[in-house]
Every structure is written in C-alpha cells, then in structure tokens.
Design goal:
Layout: H1 2-10, H2 18-31, H3 45-58, H4 63-74, H5 78-81, H6 91-99, H7 107-119, E1 127-129, E2 132-133, E3 138-145, E4 154-157, E5 163-171
Antiparallel strand pairs: 1-2, 3-5, 4-5
Helix pairs in contact: 2-3, 2-7, 3-6
Length: about 170
C-alpha cells in the first residue's frame, strides 16, 4: 500500500499544488470577519496568518529579517509575491494576534482541504473501515516555562517541588 501512495505523490494534482492550497487559505482568511476593532489594528487577519504560514513554510528563525534581506537584494519579497501579504507584522505582534484566534477560525480551511482529498479519492488508501480514515498523530509542547503561565496551562510538579507550565498540541 505504501508504494501506491508514493507513486501518486510523484504526479501532483493541480488542486493539491502549493499555489492552490495557499489560495484556499488566503480566500478563507479574507472572508473571515476580524474580531478585533478595525481602527486599532495595524495588520489584517489575512496578513498576520499568512505571515505565520510563510514563517513555517520558509523555516526561518526570523521572518522579518529574511524578508528584509530579499527586499534589499531584489526590491521585493516572497511574503508579497507568494503569500499576498501587504503589510508584514513583527513576529511578536503575529504571535500575540494568532494566540487569540479561536480554533474555529481555521475550520473552513481544513474542511476545504479534506473535501479536496476526499472528492479526488486520495484518502481511499487510508480507509480502515467504511467511512473511517486512519490518521497518524503526534504530540508536542509548544510552550514551556517555570514562570510564564496562564489559567489554561498544563503543569508538571517535579520531585523538588518546582512547577513547569506548558501548552501542548496533538497534530494529525
């Protein structure tokens, strides 16, 4: 079964190419109503989330420095040309804004991606029962601190009495 999946990845379908998936995310973000007060926002919901997506895509430690280097060298940057970001937020502003977004903000994007995979029968190799698809999951911590915490933090008390606060994610 594994070799079938690898073979199908060699010929990427148009509806699953990066540009098509980026466009879906961008379109859904532009359709979302921004819960913040418009007159107090310097960066749009679209620009902030697409900048975060670009940061993950480029795997750069500093998105802003990377874009500034490209801007200086080529008089344009990938955030604007590839991700359609008009105004680039600073990383701290990006994190602060994204932390406040409810998970439901991204639900339409995942439904759209899932429907593309289902409609074109890309999930059939992963069916374990009729109507059930196998999904591998992995957990990770994305915040850990001995002092910084919120009311939603998980915590671990060590043998010496010290407490570590953390947030985790389970990803499929």
């Amino acid at each position: 079964m594994w070799y079938v999946t690898v073979a199908s990845l060699k010929k990427t379908k148009k509806h699953l190419r990066f540009d098509a998936l980026r466009k879906v995310l961008s379109t859904h973000l532009e359709a979302q109503q921004d819960p913040r007060q418009a007159d107090k926002c310097e960066y749009s919901l679209h620009d902030t989330v697409m900048s975060a997506f670009a940061c993950m895509y480029f795997q750069e430690p500093s998105l802003l420095q990377f874009q500034q280097r490209l801007e200086k060298k080529h008089q344009r940057n990938n955030l604007h040309t590839v991700f359609r970001v008009k105004n680039t937020p600073k990383e701290s502003q990006m994190r602060d804004m994204i932390d406040t977004l409810p998970p439901e903000t991204f639900e339409p994007v995942f439904k759209d991606y899932y429907e593309r995979l289902r409609r074109h029968k890309h999930l059939e190799d992963y069916a374990i029962f009729s109507g059930a698809v196998m999904c591998v999951v992995d957990g990770t911590d994305y915040h850990s601190s001995k002092s910084v915490h919120c009311k939603s933090c998980l915590h671990r008390t060590h043998k010496n009495g010290c407490r570590t606060y953390r947030h985790g994610a389970l990803q499929g």
